[in-house]
């Protein structure tokens, strides 16, 4: 079979790799669609993974082979799922911190979503593989993982009807967050970014207000509108400098959700007095547990997520390198790219 294999940021090869062989408890799927995630892009551009790695985790495909002990899925089933499975029994799992389970990152699909065939291990078959509703396309179903991650992130904080929420970052993740928030009857969703191309899409995803922070000051917006700050701030861009800014525009008693990884220059300075005097909070959220996938599929199925506008490009699996380059063109209207097989 073939896969798009990483060798360097300018060297991704669509080449022959060994087709996975399953055991009696596993499943083999033929990939139909795999979303290009921001983490995939960062891993390639920062060359933070080993040569020979096959990335991709937002997959959807068709079951083409099942182990003899597998009874919950059949050949021909359309499926999607995640890549990491917790043990459900350790100290972290017992407290609901499934993504912090020591076994979580040890589990994975093989070789990765950007390949023609994927082996689904027994843990995933049991806990993290879901049948795709008939009315959803494979491309739409590939959005289940990022939508589930956003649901997981919003569960980390108490969101109330009437809240004012700021989303920092108008990429696909920020836009998914906005759509989920509007269904929770928040009073206002403000999305910020430094790209007009991204911000121009935000109203279609539920943003009440868009602000280009390269040209406008968030504090000025708050003062002009006479409110005490945002109840919730979701940082949906991996820029560490956004954290102090988020704390400064946060309402007393509010919470900042650090959704995106701060991989570059993560050290920042925050006025620690805000934690005591203003009871402001910061929470981190990572990945997704098995419990959010069904919610994500329902959100897509019920039209909460505007998949038609969100998916701006569908490209062949062989064009992974070109897809990543496309995301770096600032004047292109690029939101979600889905690679298809």
From TrEMBL:
InterPro entries: ADH-like_C (IPR013149), ADH-like_N (IPR013154), ADH_Zn_CS (IPR002328), ER (IPR020843), GroES-like_sf (IPR011032), NAD(P)-bd_dom_sf (IPR036291), Zn_alcohol_dh (IPR050129). The lineage of its organism: Bacteria, Bacillati, Bacillota, Bacilli, Bacillales. This is Alcohol dehydrogenase catalytic domain-containing protein. Keywords: Metal-binding, Oxidoreductase, Zinc. Residues 8-339 form the Enoyl reductase (ER) domain. It comes from Corticicoccus populi. It comes from the Bacteria. Its cofactor is Zn(2+). Belongs to the zinc-containing alcohol dehydrogenase family.
């Amino acid at each position: 079979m073939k896969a798009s294999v990483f060798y360097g940021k300018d060297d991704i090869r669509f080449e022959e790799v060994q087709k996975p062989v399953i055991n009696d408890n596993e499943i083999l799927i033929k990939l139909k669609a795999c979303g290009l995630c921001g983490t995939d892009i960062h891993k390639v551009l920062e060359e933070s993974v080993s040569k020979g790695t096959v990335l991709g985790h937002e997959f959807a495909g068709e079951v083409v082979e099942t182990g003899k002990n597998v009874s919950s899925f059949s050949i021909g089933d359309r499926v999607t799922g995640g890549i990491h499975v917790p043990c459900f029994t350790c100290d972290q799992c017992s407290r609901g911190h499934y993504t912090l389970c020591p076994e979580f990152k040890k589990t994975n699909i093989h070789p990765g979503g950007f390949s023609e065939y994927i082996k689904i291990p027994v843990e995933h078959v049991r806990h993290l593989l879901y049948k795709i509703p008939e009315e959803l396309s494979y491309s739409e179903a590939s959005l289940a993982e990022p939508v589930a991650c956003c649901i997981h992130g919003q569960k980390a904080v108490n969101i109330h009807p009437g809240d004012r929420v700021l989303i920092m970052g108008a990429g696909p993740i920020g836009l998914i967050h906005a759509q989920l928030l509007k269904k929770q009857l928040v009073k206002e969703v403000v999305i910020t970014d430094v790209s007009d191309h991204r911000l121009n899409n935000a109203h279609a995803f539920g943003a009440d207000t868009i602000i280009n922070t390269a040209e406008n000051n968030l504090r000025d917006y708050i003062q002009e509108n006479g409110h005490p700050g945002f109840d919730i701030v979701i940082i949906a861009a991996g820029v560490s400098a956004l954290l102090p800014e988020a704390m400064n525009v946060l309402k007393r008693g509010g919470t900042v959700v650090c959704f995106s990884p701060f991989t570059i220059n993560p050290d920042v300075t925050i006025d620690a007095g805000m934690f005591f005097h203003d009871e402001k909070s910061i929470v981190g959220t990572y990945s997704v547990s098995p419990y959010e996938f069904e919610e994500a599929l329902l959100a897509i199925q019920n039209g909460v997520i505007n998949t038609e506008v969100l998916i701006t490009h569908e490209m062949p699996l062989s064009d992974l390198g070109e897809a990543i380059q496309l995301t770096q063109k600032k004047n292109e209207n690029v939101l979600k790219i889905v690679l298809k097989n």
